Amino acid sequence: MTYAQITLPRLLLSLGLIAVAVAxxxxxxxxxxxxxxxxAVRGAAQLIAIxxxxxxxxxxxxxxxxxxxxxxMLVAAGATAARRVEHGPPRAVLFPRxxxxxxxxTLVAVVPVFAGVVPLHPWYEARYLVPISGMMLSNAMNVVAxxxxxxxxxxxxxxxxxEALLALGATPRQALERQVRSTLRAALLPTxxxxxxxxxxxxxxxxxxxxVSGTAPEQAVRYQIVILYQLVAxxxxxxxxxxxFARRLLFTSRAQLVLPGTQA
Amino acid sequence: xxxxxxxxxxxxxRAGRRILDGASxxxxxxxxxxxxGPSGSGKSTLARTLASLLEPDAGTVLLGERDARxxxxxxxxxxVAFLAQQPAMFEGSVLANLAAGPRLHGKSLxxxxxxxxxxxxxxxxxxxxxxARTLSGGEKQRVALARALANAPxxxxxxxxxAALDPEAGERIVALLRELRTRGLSIxxxxxxEAHARALxxxxxxxxxxxxxAGA
Lengths: 264, 216
Fold this sequence. Notes:
Distance between the termini of chain A: 66 Å
Number of helices of chain A: 11
Structural class of chain A: mainly alpha
Number of helices of chain B: 7
Helix content of chain B: 25-40%
Shape of chain A: globular
CATH topology of chain B: Rossmann fold
Oligomer: heterodimer
Radius of gyration of chain A: 22 Å
Number of strands of chain A: 0
Order of helices and strands of chain B: EEEHEEHEHHHEHEHEE
């Protein structure tokens, strides 16, 4: 089975879609033209670059190169998740924790699936390992970013509640329970909504891609189901890990609440 | 005689400022103590430090002559209750608020216990069913007091409990504290209102520039 090739002139033609958004932005004075153009250029450049990287990787498939690429992706995901957390600790404090949380979530979802569901030959088969890990890293990154964003903000807003509980002899875990619950619910909601609407609203990218490139729809669907379940595990584990890190940052070893940015 | 709660040479630094500058205070079991001082004198920081909600940069807090750092925080705060100026009410009924402390420690509060607590703070039993967040400022103070008493603490630390109340409601809270003292509780009242400090009829201290001075 063949697929329709996108030649370079045809690819450039698709830039017209960005032009539509730019024109609308200008007309409605949204001031987003620069962001749109920069986003379009940067997105394309990153994808073209990863395309060449994958090409290189496929032709020189070595464990070290595959792991190195996954490592770079993990660091980029961690850096993004730790960026701009309002009311949170400095980026340098969050960054290693974001990497650990994103990494933990991804590992839990990726290792068992490649060990038992989609066996790889060899174990570092980049064609599967890189794109699927990338999807997991991206979901973990979004969940961790949201957990950090919400948990520090709600601890600040509800500091009097948390301290009232501590004063009654609550452990940090008990004192922060309400905030943790609402944070995790909010962070997991997009993934759960994804499960509920898949096939009804959107045909997911991976499945679409496989079908377009000639995979039998029934196999593409099975892959997609595995991916969806992986995304759920990623979100849960990365979210819980991020919460555990945030809790340690919010309380001293003597169970005292310390709001980042308020202490000398 | 064993002291109930003691702060020894407490220092708290914030942004290079000495909020507490060697503050010391000793409270005997069953003693009432009022610490009076202007705002910014460090008295709230002292109350929070004595309650172990704030770690001092230097100095020691002792509970029953044991270093607070050697006592697990959960145990310390069950024995030393702290009430903030405007105590936060938890979601739910007054009864749920009163049961919060025991529940944290895996215990329950029966109806008779809840009734006795709410009466001890001068509210009637019908209050138990009310939504805690809809109460007036004075009622919230009382519920917070009853909530703290549910843990059967040895020491009660109150940070400006009358500051957000009208004068009459404030005086009633102080009268209530006088009554509670007869139960053998040690009470530490931090206030900027001299009349309320005196009305407690206990030992008076002044807080000035992060230090504690005898007499008001």
